[in-house]
Each structure stands twice: as structure tokens, then as C-alpha cells.
């Protein structure tokens, strides 16, 4: 079972590494990082580099695709080799999935037209322009269409656990959860817009402005 995670400049690291930590542990799974060219890709803040081992052309028919998000997806919203690869690969995948703004790549490939989908809460309007109906649900499934989208960043772990269940069974998914000790007990309860107060939102806007 080949699971392909495409890399592109200015992706968000946890969007791909979270699902990777779950899925690479499944029996029989081969996780491959792919890109337009083999080599290093820098993440959104430039601090971290990830390595693509194969090109898109070398991985035409993966069983599963997990598209990460990040500010770098903006460069692909009007089309790109990444978008073309996702569109072509989807013809034969068991599941085509995304995390955060990775859903914008799916949208650009025409895979979300008329479907509910999710992404980072700050980018719902972009998803809507691509023909999807944005929803705040953390993981959105359209199993008949073989499409799964996950919300912002950390939700990729949730999506990968659900994908583990679909690919193997619920016991496998629970084993993956235990293996990575995914038992969230955050010290604060501010992980959604509905839970964040004005001070938190103001600080978030301030911090975000320095990362553009």
C-alpha cells in the first residue's frame, strides 16, 4: 500500500508529519514523499527542510494521497504540476485526502465541486470560491467519492486515524493511536474560533502578520 505525501515550498510541517507518524506504522504501508523535483523543500517559515525522494512522474498511481497545507498552497490555486498530479492520481486512489489548506489543492483539481469540505478556519472563503461548501467539522468524509478533508494543522492526526480504520480496521486505528500516545489533554481550551476570546484573536492576528 503506497501512501504519497506531496511536498511543496512553504507547506506546514505538521500537516504532513502528523499523518506520516500515524500512517507509516500501518502494516504493509510505504509512505513516500513526492514533489515536482527530488530534493529539499522548505516549510512555511523556512526553518525546516523536508526531502522529496521521488518526483510526481515516478509515483503516478499511489493508493492514498495526503495533501498538506500551508501558505504555499496559494501558488497552486490556479493550477500547477502538483494540481495536475493530484487530479490524475485520484483516478486510481483508494482515498485522496488533505489537511488544512491542502483542500485548496483538491479544489483546484476539481475534486470538491458540490461537496462539503473543510480547511483552516481562516480560509473558508477560498474553499467556497472553488465550488465546495466549507464546514467547521474537523474531518469531512465523502467515501463514495474517495475524498476526505481535514481542518487546520493538528486535525491531520485525527484524519489519519480515521484513514487507518478505513484501510485496515478500527483496532488498527486504535493501535496507531496508542503507539503515538495520542491522548490530547491541552493546557488551554482555545483551539477553535468559538472558544477563543478577543485577546487571543488580537494576538493571533498580530503574530500572523509577522509571518506573511
What report would you give on this structure?
With 212 residues, the chain is an alpha/beta fold. The chain has one domain (2-185): Class I glutamine amidotransferase (GATase) domain (Rossmann fold). 32% of the residues lie in helices and 20% in strands. It has helices at residues 13-23, 81-89, 102-108, 124-129, 155-167, 170-179, 198-209, and strands at residues 2-6, 30-35, 39-42, 49-52, 54-55, 64-67, 95-99, 116-117, 133-134, 139-142, 147-150. The chain has a 7-stranded mixed sheet, sandwiched between helices. α5 packs antiparallel against α6. The mean pLDDT is 97.
Share of residues in helices = 25-40%
N-to-C SSE series?
Answer: EHEEEEEHEHEHEEEHHH
How many structural units, i.e. domains? 1
- Structural class based on helices, strands and sheet pairing: alpha/beta
- Largest pleated sheet: 7 strands, mixed
Share of residues in strands: 15-25%
Distance between the termini: 37 Å
Broad shape? globular
Quick one: how many beta strands? 11
Question: Which second-level CATH architecture applies?
Answer: 3-Layer(aba) Sandwich
Please, what is the average pLDDT? 97
Low-confidence spans: pLDDT under 50, at least 5 residues? Answer: none
Fourth CATH level, the homologous superfamily: Class I glutamine amidotransferase (GATase) domain
Our count of helices gives 7
CATH fold type: Rossmann fold
Amino acid at each position: 500500500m503506497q501512501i504519497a505525501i506531496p511536498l511543496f515550498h512553504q507547506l506546514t510541517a505538521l500537516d504532513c508529519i502528523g499523518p506520516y507518524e500515524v500512517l507509516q506504522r500501518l502494516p504493509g504501508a510505504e509512505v513516500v514523499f513526492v514533489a515536482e523535483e527530488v530534493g529539499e523543500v522548505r516549510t512555511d517559515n523556512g526553518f525546516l527542510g523536508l526531502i522529496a525522494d521521488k518526483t510526481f512522474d515516478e509515483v503516478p498511481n499511489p493508493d492514498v494521497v495526503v495533501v498538506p497545507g500551508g501558505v504555499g498552497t496559494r501558488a497552486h490555486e490556479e493550477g500547477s504540476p502538483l494540481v495536475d498530479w493530484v487530479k490524475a492520481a485520484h483516478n486510481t486512489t483508494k482515498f485522496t485526502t488533505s489537511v488544512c489548506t491542502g483542500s485548496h489543492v483538491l479544489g483546484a483539481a476539481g475534486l470538491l465541486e458540490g461537496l462539503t469540505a473543510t480547511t483552516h478556519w481562516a480560509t473558508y472563503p477560498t474553499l467556497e470560491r472553488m465550488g465546495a461548501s466549507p464546514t467547521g467539522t474537523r474531518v469531512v468524509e465523502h467515501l463514495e467519492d474517495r475524498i476526505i478533508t481535514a481542518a487546520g494543522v493538528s486535525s491531520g492526526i485525527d484524519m489519519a486515524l480515521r484513514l487507518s480504520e478505513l484501510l485496515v480496521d478500527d483496532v488498527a486505528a486504535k493501535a496507531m493511536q496508542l503507539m503515538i500516545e495520542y491522548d490530547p489533554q491541552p493546557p488551554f481550551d482555545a483551539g477553535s474560533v468559538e472558544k477563543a476570546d478577543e485577546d487571543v484573536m488580537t494576538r493571533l492576528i498580530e503574530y500572523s502578520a509577522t509571518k506573511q
